[in-house]
Every structure is written in structure tokens, then in C-alpha cells.
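Below: protein 1.
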Amino acid sequence: MKCFSSPRTSYLAAAISALVLGGCGDSGNGRDVATATEEANGHLENVVLQTAETKIFFDDFSYQSLEEMGKNQWKARTETGHPGVSGARWSGDGISFLADAENPGNTLLRMTSSTDGSGENTNHTQFCHQRKYLAGTYAARVFFRDEPTSGPDGDQIIETFYTISPLKADMDPDYSEMDFEYLANGGWGEPDNALFATSWETFKLDPFVKDNEHSTKPGSFAGWHTLVLQAGDNKLRYFVDGVPFAEHSERVFPEEPMSINFNLWFTQEGLIDSSELRSYQQEVDWVYHIADQVLSPEQVEEEVRRLRSGQVAFTDTVPDWNPKLESPCGL
């Protein structure tokens, strides 16, 4: 069999070619077209049709500095206030980039937050992307930890991936927020570690009043996880590593465009009785969004593989709203 390269006229043709010609190396064991076609059709189940109107946001976090990251419209939070420890500092100092020890050539983003139990020595970390996202599919690959990387254990630490709009007024009916939140040391009624999925209708900060739907699964989620959120058909569906985690109703479906966010913070009521400094970390490998389309977790994984194999470290074809919205990074 002669091996050759030809123009890629379709995904199916390319898949069949790759599978049939797989034996064109040293082994010389090619496969028949029928077998290759069947396998290629299996791949096609997870392929997303790309058109000029497809609106995608993807970031592989292949940066060397926060300044470089800012050129792609990310911003680090510096605004003080809710949530977390009163008097705590929010800054980009806790954002760093490191080589992926398990995947040579890959870069990870790391958030580091620390506290000694006092407000003035508590450092929270958050970063946000533009406020322009609404219906569609959201996904991220994140690394959660159950223990601090230094210092004593036990603080209620919140490790997250979420979308959010500004709260224009107390109990604003148009407020929108969708959260994955991992509580490594319990909190919010959970005695030990648990993962929360929460979809918000609205809230009031002081005194605190909440209106949301939430789902919780106790147990450790330490390690790498792919989080997928489908916002479509007036329902919100949350997945963890391809497994359905929660489904929330039309009542809490987002109505206002949101920003994409990650943060790492301590609860005020959950600090341990210690003045020793302790630090917690969370890593992010990539983040993905496709507007106005509901993708399965398998389709998301296929899309990320497609982008990475094409050496796409960052792309953003999701248009701004008209007029362009301000993008605060403070919740």
C-alpha cells in the first residue's frame, strides 16, 4: 500500500485515511475501509460542525506572566469585599504559571491563596474574563486539593470555576450566576469535603438572603477534573468527568451576560484557630466555551483535542455585546 498525504476535504475522509493508513509505518498492517469507516463514524459523534458563525472561547493558559495573560482580556481581581474574610486582600500576586510535570510542553495556571487567620494577612485570588457570555456550554479542567501546600490544615477553603453578572440591586431578578465550588474542608452545612453546583436567581448581601438551586455531593474531589456546564433549553446541567452531577430549572436560568471566573478564597466563619501562615493552591489547565450550542462532555473533550492538536493556545470569536459591557472583577 502506498502512503501519501492529500488535502483534508472532510473530517470523515481524514479519519478514515488515518485509520486505514495506520499501517503505513514499519508494521505495514493496514486496515480495511469498512472497519476504518465504522471507527471514524464513532469519532464523528463527538465532532462539532464549525461554521463562520461558530462562537468559541478557548484558553490553554500558555502564558509566562500575568501581563501577557492580560493582553487576552483577562484581569486579576483587586477589589476588596465579598466573598471571604473581612479585610482580605485580592490581587494577582497569587497567579503564576508552571510547567505541567505530567504533560511535557503544557503550561498550567496556578492560584495560591494564604491566611494566618487575620484579615490583614489573608490573600485571596481571582481572575475574570470579559462579561459577554450567556447560553451555551462552559468547561474547564481543574486540579483541586484537600490540604494546604504549607501550614496547618482545616480552614474552609473554596476552590471554583464559575460565571457571574454584577448584582445591580438587592434581590435583582436579572442577576445571573452558575458555580462549581469545591469545599475541601467542609462548610455551608457540610461537615467535610464536598462539591457544590449552584445556580442563582438572586441574593441580598446584608443581611444575607439567597435564592438559588444547588446540588451537593460529599466526598473528596482532590485531583484533576473536567467540569462541564450546559446552559441551554432553559435548563442548566452540570457534569464532572463526563458524569451528570446536577440539573437545575428554568427559574435560575441566566438572564444577564456573565464573565468567566476562577477564584480561591477562605470563608470568614471557617478559619481555624491558628496564627501560623498556611497556603492553598488550585491549578487550571484550560477553559472552553461555545456560545448558543449544547455540547456533551465528550464533544467538549474532542473540541479541546482539536484545538490543541492545531496548536491553538488561545482563540476568542465570541463577540462583545453592543454596546460593549463593562467587565468588573469583584464578585
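Below: protein 2.
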Amino acid sequence: MDDYLSVGKITSAYGVNGEVKVFPLTDHLDRFYDLDYVYIFEETGKASLNIESVRFIKNLVIVKFKEINDRNEAEKLRGKLIKITRDNAVKLDDDEYFIKDLLNMKVYTDDQKELGILKDVLKTGANDVYVVKTDDRDILIPAIKGVIKKVDIKERKMTVHLLEGL
């Protein structure tokens, strides 16, 4: 498993003092207040950036990095993912998983027939929906207790109970 998790994507510079707008990729927005530093990966390697300040405007996070002091420097970060180490990730409950750990996992029915590969997770508000690619189509599976029977991150295997109509 990759040791880094994406918590946001920089969408643009904000203002003239080096702040950036970040689209959050986490359900735990307050976690930005707890971060002292993050990583940005580029072709030349990874860079560690220290967080100076965090604030929220609508559904975006405005972040000021200590190392970035003007709009031109901030604009160079457009499109970059903000990553953290797993050690800095929020602690999950037993039935919660990082999306990154679910992607490309094999999905089986509760009678052990291989259904396909989990290719995407849709955020719907009420509950997540897993997109499972089968041989001939995509199946949408609600991420609810009555359907998701078992998730084994180490074995990269999920067992589901298909509801009628899926």
C-alpha cells in the first residue's frame, strides 16, 4: 500500500500573498487545522510544505504555506495533490476505509463468485456507492451494512450481498 493519502487538490492561487485554494478530498475537513506540513509530488520528487494558516471559504480550503509567498509561486502548484502520510491520517472506525485502499479491490458475491473490480466510489450524501466493473458492465453497489458483508484490505477482497435488481 502507498504510504501517502491525498487530502486535497490545489485548484488555483488565491490572492497575492501565496495562498492557494484547495478542493478537499477528505470527509474530515477539520483535519486541515491539525496539519503542520503536507507533501506535494512532482516529477523531480516530493516536496514538504509547512502550513502557515488554514481557513475555509464555501466548500474550499484556503491554505497558506510558509514557503510560498506570492501569487506566481502559488500558481505553480495548480493541479497538484496535497498528500499526507498514513501516520497523519485520521483514525477510522472498524467499518470505515480510505477510498484509496478500496480501489482495484476484487469484489465477490456472498456465495464466493467473482463479481468484478471496484473501480470508483461515488459520494451521494446518504451513503457511498461502489462502482464495480464486471466483464460486460458497471454495477452500482450501495455501501451499506446489509450489502457490504466483509472488506479485507490485506487480501484486497470485498464480499457483497447483491440486492434484487443489481
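Helices lie at 31-34, 71-75, 99-102.
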